[in-house]
TrEMBL record:
SUPFAM superfamilies: Class I glutamine amidotransferase-like, Homeodomain-like. It comes from Cognatishimia activa. The gene is cdhR_5. SMART domains: HTH_ARAC (SM00342). CDD domains: GATase1_AraC_ArgR_like. This is Carnitine catabolism transcriptional activator. Gene3D superfamilies: 3.40.50.880, Homeodomain-like. It comes from the Bacteria. The keyword Hydrolase does not apply. Keywords: DNA-binding, Transcription, Transcription regulation. Residues 234-332 form the HTH araC/xylS-type domain.
C-alpha cells in the first residue's frame, strides 16, 4: 500500500483512548504535473497521526482518470490504486495537479457529480486553477493559489476570493499552494478531528513545529515582504497591492501607514533600495505582465487594470522595465 511505502519506523503510541473507526477517507485524484512533495507530505502527516492513535483514523485512496500511473512535476511517476470511482458516497476528494493543467470533460463530470452527492473538496498545488475553471469551487471561502496565477485568477473570477497564503483550511474545505502545504493541511485535519495534542505531536515527529508556525503566520501579501519585518512598510506595500488599478499617489500610502511621506521614502530606500513611487510602478508593471501572460485581455485593458491612464504611457514604461513591448510579449 502507498501509505506503507511512505511511512518511516513505527512510532511509540501516546497514552490516549483508541479510536476504533475511520474518521475521514480521502480520494486523492492525481492529474498531470501533480506535486509529489505535497502528496507525500499530506499522506505522511496523516500516517503519523494513525500511528499515534494505533488505528486508521485517516484513510486514503489514490486515483487517476484512467487508472494509469501519473507523472509528477519533478518527473517521477506515481502508480495509483484505481480509476475514477463511483462518485456517490465519496467523503473527501483531494485534487492535486499542475498549475497549467486542465480537467478533462470526464473528470469535470465526475467532480460535479461527487459535489452533488455531498463530497467535500481539497485542492493541492495548481488544482485550484483547474477547479475554478470547472466551476467546482464555492465562493464562500478563500482559496490558496500560486502567486504566478494570483492576478489572473482575480481577473477571471472576480466573484471568488483568492489568496497567496500557503494554505487555507475551513470546515470540510481546504486548499494549499505552498511547497509544504500538504503537511500544513494534514496537521489542520489532524487538529480538527483528533485535537491539538495529536496535531502537535505529529508536527514534532515531522520536525516541523517551527516551520508550521512560520507557514501559519504567512500573510496574503507580496512575496518580498517575507524578508521585511517593518510593520509600516508592510502596511504600505499591502495597500499598494490592493490599489493597483486606482494607482494613488505616494502621499496616500504614507497616510495609510500613518507616517510622513519622508519617513515612507526612507523606509523604502532602507529596505527595498527603491523609492515608493518606483516600487509601486514596478508592482503595477509586474501585475500587467502577469495579466498579459495568463489572460486574454487586450493591451489597453491590461493597462487600465494596472493603473495606467493611457496605452502609450503604459507601453513606454513596460518596454523600459522588461526590454520587450507588451504587444510582443502577448504574441510570443
Amino acid at each position: 500500500m502507498l501509505h506503507q511505502s511512505l511511512s518511516s519506523d513505527q512510532r511509540a503510541p501516546v497514552a490516549r483512548t483508541r479510536v476504533t473507526n475511520c474518521l475521514r477517507h480521502y480520494t486523492i485524484f492525481l492529474g498531470p504535473d501533480f506535486s509529489l512533495l505535497n502528496l507525500s507530505g499530506f499522506i505522511q502527516g496523516l500516517k503519523i497521526a494513525n500511528d499515534f492513535m494505533q488505528n486508521e483514523c485517516f484513510r486514503w485512496t489514490i486515483v487517476s482518470e484512467h487508472g494509469n500511473a501519473v507523472e509528477s512535476s519533478c518527473g517521477l511517476t506515481m502508480p495509483v490504486g484505481s480509476d475514477l470511482p463511483v462518485p456517490q458516497g465519496l467523503d473527501y476528494i483531494v485534487v492535486n495537479m499542475g498549475l497549467d493543467q486542465q480537467l478533462s470533460p470526464k473528470a469535470k463530470a465526475w467532480l460535479h457529480s461527487a459535489a452533488r452527492h455531498g463530497s467535500s473538496f481539497g485542492a493541492l498545488d495548481g488544482a485550484v486553477v483547474a477547479l475554478a475553471k470547472s466551476g467546482c469551487l464555492t465562493c464562500e471561502v478563500p482559496w490558496s493559489v500560486h502567486w504566478h496565477a494570483f492576478e489572473a485568477m482575480r481577473e477571471q473570477f472576480p466573484e471568488m476570493t483568492f489568496s497567496r497564503r500557503s494554505f487555507h483550511h475551513d470546515t470540510r474545505v481546504f486548499s494549499g499552494a505552498g511547497a509544504t502545504a500538504g503537511i500544513d493541511l494534514a496537521l489542520c485535519e489532524i487538529q480538527e478531528l483528533l485535537g491539538d495534542d495529536i496535531a502537535r505531536k505529529s508536527a514534532d515527529e515531522l520536525n516541523y513545529s517551527a516551520q508550521h508556525r512560520l507557514q501559519s503566520m504567512s500573510g496574503d501579501m507580496h512575496p518580498i515582504l517575507s524578508q521585511i519585518d517593518n510593520e509600516k512598510l508592510r502596511i504600505a506595500v499591502a495597500e499598494m497591492e490592493r490599489t493597483i488599478e486606482e494607482a494613488p499617489p505616494t502621499e496616500y500610502f504614507a497616510q495609510v501607514a500613518q507616517i510622513s511621506v519622508r519617513q515612507l521614502e526612507r523606509l523604502f530606500k532602507e529596505h527595498l533600495e527603491l523609492s515608493p513611487k518606483r516600487f509601486f510602478l514596478n508592482l503595477r508593471l509586474e501585475h500587467a505582465r502577469d495579466l498579459l501572460l495568463s489572460t486574454n485581455l487586450n493591451v489597453l485593458d491590461v493597462a487600465i487594470c494596472s493603473g495606467f491612464g493611457s496605452k502609450t504611457n503604459f507601453s513606454k514604461k513596460f518596454r523600459e522595465r522588461f526590454g520587450i513591448s507588451a504587444m510582443k510579449l502577448r504574441s510570443s
